[in-house]
């Protein structure tokens, strides 16, 4: 049909109109493109070659992945020849624990790189800053349910990250965690029946008792 049009007398107007329409519609067709290439943000530097949060349109992003994609995690993954590490965009001491510590705890349930590394290492390093105890204690009512979810996760690696995070938190907040332990022990007792976790859980319970004192 287009060949016939080219031979007709309306040839000079029709192609121009067609081109103009395609130009007008091109921004709509290309609108997803900017979404896959957002402006550089702190967390966009976190191993961008390994993860593209916008690639899997069929699966919605988790809360942690969505915050990560928007640049809400103020640190990035640095690849080393032997060991990876985090580089913070600002001093961890200056970062508000609320909501970052809770967000990192939620990220412990991730199963994809670099989310797994960022959440685990970020949680640990944030708890290492001076004054971490007084910043973390008010967040315990929100942290404990998140850690409980990690400990109850079917993925073994997620469970181990949750267990490590629990011990790290206990070392910082001490007896303040005692009132919340009852919410976590059920998940630990279930895994204690598994031989591959028995030793690690036993050591973790000993540390919780050590940090929590006699009451624990």
From TrEMBL:
Source taxon at top rank: Eukaryota
Region of interest (Disordered), ranges: 1-50
Gene3D superfamilies reported in the protein's UniProt record: Leucine-rich Repeat Variant
InterPro entries hit by this protein: ARM-like (IPR011989), ARM-type_fold (IPR016024), Parkin_co-regulated_protein (IPR019399)
Bias-annotated ranges (Polar residues): 1-28
Annotated signal peptide: none
PANTHER family: PACRG-LIKE PROTEIN, PARKIN COREGULATED GENE PROTEIN PARK2 COREGULATED
Protein name: PACRL protein
Organism, scientific name: Jacana jacana (Wattled jacana)
